[in-house]
From TrEMBL:
<dbReference type="Pfam" id="PF04607">
    <property type="entry name" value="RelA_SpoT"/>
</dbReference>
<dbReference type="GO" id="GO:0008728">
    <property type="term" value="F:GTP diphosphokinase activity"/>
</dbReference>
<comment type="pathway">
    <text>Purine metabolism; ppGpp biosynthesis; ppGpp from GTP: step 1/2.</text>
</comment>
<keyword id="KW-0067">ATP-binding</keyword>
<comment type="subunit">
    <text>Homotetramer.</text>
</comment>
<keyword id="KW-0547">Nucleotide-binding</keyword>
<comment type="similarity">
    <text>Belongs to the RelA/SpoT family.</text>
</comment>
<dbReference type="GO" id="GO:0015970">
    <property type="term" value="P:guanosine tetraphosphate biosynthetic process"/>
</dbReference>
<dbReference type="GO" id="GO:0016301">
    <property type="term" value="F:kinase activity"/>
</dbReference>
<keyword id="KW-0808">Transferase</keyword>
<keyword id="KW-0418">Kinase</keyword>
<dbReference type="GO" id="GO:0005524">
    <property type="term" value="F:ATP binding"/>
</dbReference>
<dbReference type="InterPro" id="IPR007685">
    <property type="entry name" value="RelA_SpoT"/>
</dbReference>
<feature type="domain" description="RelA/SpoT">
    <location>
        <begin position="43"/>
        <end position="167"/>
    </location>
</feature>
<dbReference type="InterPro" id="IPR052366">
    <property type="entry name" value="GTP_Pyrophosphokinase"/>
</dbReference>
<protein>
    <recommendedName>
        <fullName>GTP diphosphokinase</fullName>
        <ecNumber>2.7.6.5</ecNumber>
    </recommendedName>
</protein>
<dbReference type="InterPro" id="IPR043519">
    <property type="entry name" value="NT_sf"/>
</dbReference>
Amino acid sequence: MGQWDIFLSPYKQAVDELKIKLKGMRSQFGIQGSTSPIEFVTGRVKPLASIYDKTREKGIPFEPSEQLAAQMQDIAGLRIMCQFVDDISTVTKLIRQRDDLRVMEEIDYITHKKPSGYRSYHMIVEYPVETINGKINVLAEIQIRTLAMNFWASIEHSLNYKYKGIFPEEINNRLQRAAEAAFQLDEEMSSIRSEIQEAQAYFSEVKEATNPKIPTKQEKERD
């Protein structure tokens, strides 16, 4: 196993464990019969090519080190999608009250959007990973955003690779207008949130009622 594999292994473990725990939060809402503020959760470990680009930006050596671990806070990255903007604050509160991680920093790009139009809520957390060599505390970035915010961010991310961060003025203006349109969509959906959730609950009930019931082994034997 190479140096990078050894260095990134705790980050991979952190992503896997946090994905399970965050998805578990979503399931608990369903068990309690309430609507979850979490739509779905994804996670990844930053690829080596992206780590290399980031080290060049920060002016630090491209090598596994404590300096890299301290200065690059998003090697382990998780993303939580929400249906509504208001759900984001609910999720951040749930994360803050957890005992299995420590929130180190919060950046609100929703209230204070980036000049590009980017909106999301970022939390940097310290998460303890138990390894065969003892406990290792790793930093992870959790991004919390709506589906509309994520759609815009995914498009902007792809274009960023093409234009190396320097967009033509027309593309830049269109992206900013699209960001505002996405946020207006979020606000409109929030204004009819109760109607949407009632419709979703009704749909789930009808779907469950119309699904054929699969008999258990005992029921088959009785028949």
